[in-house]
């Protein structure tokens, strides 16, 4: 039940038809007696800067989940941002501080890294390759850097995008070895597809499968199909891997901690979600 004491978490994006978060958070809140609710709110980009400020003047607002197309533009509207958000260049969670300040963070990469760790993959000291330096790839790079990887290789078809991420990583993690320009997976402990390749039938594989060692851990971000052609191919080589939706479910416990709610596990969230 939504009452006058319910804490409101806005799910901000446009359009809202594909939003999944309410179908995960709200069953969890209900089952655990947490007086909060996630509500989709469609906001066009032109209206967003003014709307976000007004939203956080509501007396019952607690926070906001931020999705496309607002993750980047949110950065300029905040009073405080985490290092992960600064490296990613985007934000997907905002909460109201006790002093009224807007505090932002980025959890896409956190979800990815938590998934790796829960599967027993050692991240600290690892060598990782990320194909794709857009929003998701940048967020994963930020969290891998925070988790202590030794070497991070970035590849993107748009060289300027990869170089911009390189510059942000060097600014906030000056001791991290970062390289750009090659998608050769040979010699890496962790390989990540953070490109859209695999969303459409007939897409080429994002990385040369023949160059991936069977001992390499492979991560996928595409969520339209659990076992993408890329994961099918690396599975055939004997690689351990992580499916795209793991990143989604693994980041929600981090969100709950950020919003100062009782947290849970990704497995529990999967069990009670009403995704159909």
Automatic annotation (TrEMBL):
GO molecular function: NADP binding; shikimate 3-dehydrogenase (NADP+) activity
Domain THIF-type NAD/FAD binding fold: 121-158
UniProt keyword list: Amino-acid biosynthesis, Aromatic amino acid biosynthesis, Oxidoreductase
Domain of life: Bacteria
Chain ranges of the Shikimate dehydrogenase substrate binding N-terminal domain: 13-94
GO cellular component, one term: cytosol
TM helices/strands, residue ranges: none
Residues making up the signal peptide according to the UniProt record: none
Pathway per the UniProt entry: Metabolic intermediate biosynthesis; chorismate biosynthesis; chorismate from D-erythrose 4-phosphate and phosphoenolpyruvate: step 4/7
SUPFAM superfamilies: Aminoacid dehydrogenase-like, N-terminal domain, NAD(P)-binding Rossmann-fold domains
InterPro entries documented for this protein: Aminoacid_DH-like_N_sf (IPR046346), NAD(P)-bd_dom_sf (IPR036291), Shikimate_DH-bd_N (IPR013708), Shikimate_DH_fam (IPR022893), ThiF_NAD_FAD-bd (IPR000594)
Gene Ontology biological process terms from the UniProt entry: aromatic amino acid family biosynthetic process; chorismate biosynthetic process; shikimate metabolic process
PANTHER family given in the database record: BIFUNCTIONAL 3-DEHYDROQUINATE DEHYDRATASE_SHIKIMATE DEHYDROGENASE, CHLOROPLASTIC (PTHR21089:SF1), SHIKIMATE DEHYDROGENASE (PTHR21089)
Name recorded for this polypeptide: Shikimate dehydrogenase
Record organism: Rhizobium sophorae
